[in-house]
Amino acid sequence: MGPMNTILLVAWAISAVALIVLVLMHSGKGTGVSDMIASSMYNANAGSGVWEKNLDRLTVIAAVVFIATIVIFMLTYPLGTVSSLG
């Protein structure tokens, strides 16, 4: 595994932790099963605060970095590093 893959692995791990933390920081929008059923009546003003908008942006950025590192890592990971048992 080369230095580029090591950097990608570190970026992937940081983005994974950041994504978990950012998702957990979001405020709950619903109160239970009734809100899941009546999701069409969602209040559009619920996430209009500056803090919530910035949190949304950071969450999207972390998700994009997470997905991009996975795709790049899939393309650059050296083949033949997993030994077969047979």
TrEMBL record:
It comes from Parolsenella catena. The lineage of its organism: Bacteria, Bacillati, Actinomycetota, Coriobacteriia, Coriobacteriales. This is Protein-export membrane protein SecG. The chain crosses the membrane at residues 6-25, 58-80. Signal peptide: none annotated. Involved in protein export. Participates in an early event of protein translocation. It is a multi-pass membrane protein. One of its GO terms (cellular component) is plasma membrane. GO terms for molecular function: protein-transporting ATPase activity. One of its GO terms (biological process) is protein secretion. Keywords: Cell membrane, Membrane, Protein transport, Translocation, Transmembrane, Transmembrane helix, Transport.
